[in-house]
Structure formats: C-alpha cells, structure tokens
Design goal:
single chain; globular; 2 helices; alpha/beta; 99 residues; six-stranded mixed beta sheet
Length: 99
C-alpha cells in the first residue's frame, strides 16, 4: 500500500499535512502489514517512479482531478496533520473518501 501526502517539510517526524497549493514536499509512504516500511520525500511529484495508490488531502475543497484521472484514490484527513496521525487514521479507516 502506498500513500502520497503533501507536507511542509522533509523531516519525517516534523512534517505536517498542507494544502496542495502550499506543498513544499511530497511524502511517499510505503506501508507493509500496518507499519510504515519506507518514507521518502520528493520535491516534485513527477520524481516519484512508483505506483501511488492513495493521495491524502487536508480538505474536500482541494483540486484533485489530475490525481483522480490517474486512478489515484483521494482521502481527506480533516483533523490529522502529522504523518503518523494520518497513517494511523488511514489504518483505522477514519479518513473519508473524496468523490
């Protein structure tokens, strides 16, 4: 399972979720059996050479059609901000799908 999270920093435990317009880095998270197996930061989304399954956004007003056209599901993290909070909410199905 892979998650893509727009964040404000490239420091794993300090990075916070941002809006797509304010993205400084993209955190590409690879999960394996409910654990973060890998967390890689990219300055540009196009630098990611792996399959992205799910994009996490801050609110349901984000402009996400380009991700949906790539068949990437989009989930909203309304209150979660850190990578760990987002991953935990994802694993417990607490994020809602943006349609």
């Amino acid at each position: 399972m892979s998650l893509l999270i727009p964040v404000d920093s490239n420091r794993r435990h300090e990075a916070l979720l941002t809006t797509l317009d304010a993205t400084e880095y993209w955190a590409f998270i690879e999960l394996n059996e409910g654990q973060i197996e890998n967390c890689t930061f990219y300055k540009e989304k196009d630098d990611i050479n792996a399959f992205i399954e799910t994009l996490i956004v801050q609110n349901d007003q984000e402009y996400v059609w380009q991700f949906q056209q790539e068949d990437i599901s989009v989930l909203v993290a309304p209150t979660q901000r850190s990578i760990d909070e987002i991953v935990e909410a994802f694993l417990f199905s607490e994020l809602h799908e943006l349609k």
